[in-house]
Design brief:
Layout: E1 8-11, H1 15-24, E2 26-31, H2 37-48, E3 52-60, E4 64-67, E5 70-73, E6 77-84
Antiparallel strand pairs: 1-2, 2-6, 3-6, 4-5
Amino acid sequence: MKNLHTVIKKPLFTEKGAKLKESENKVLVEVAKDANKVDIKKAIEDIFKVKVEKVATVTTNGKWKKYGKSIGRRPDRKKAIITIKKGEKLDFIEGA
């Protein structure tokens, strides 16, 4: 990946993510499907100026859904669980 800003799509705010952030200093983000762990680590470190200890990725397939009479499919997603080193802090909604 060339541009680091295209690797990270958006942060994920879920109940599981909130528990992981409080207990284990981990952050959930949605990433590009073709991004690898090295690209994700480099993007987080360069953009947010924090040290990353570990990156785990999870790819989920889109579900089949009915929309009226037709059948459609939701898009596939890839998310990353990023472990931040102790003493570092990453907060996407500071001041809100």
